[in-house]
Amino acid sequence: MSSSDQENKQRNREIANNEARREAVSDVRVSTWAVAIAVIAGVIAVAVVWTWLGR
Predict the structure, then answer these.
(1) How crowded is the C-beta side of 23, counted as CA atoms within 13 Å?
(2) How does pLDDT run across 2-44, given as a tens digit for each residue?
(3) Which of 1, 4, 19, 24 has its CA 20 to 30 A from that of 34?
(4) What pTM was computed for the model?
(5) Helix and strand totals (H; E) in the chain
């Protein structure tokens, strides 16, 4: 293989690694939002049930 082929393969590996890292960060961000929304919905549901049972 020529050196340019090797350089291209190395460059492609670096691009793939960077993209994988970016996707992982995005997945964590989405998961954090999903957990936060679930917690808020749970708190609202508990408050509604608590209020309804307290009548």
Answers:
(1) 6
(2) 788 899 999 999 999 999 999 998 888 889 999 999 999 999 9
(3) 19
(4) 0.61
(5) 1, 0
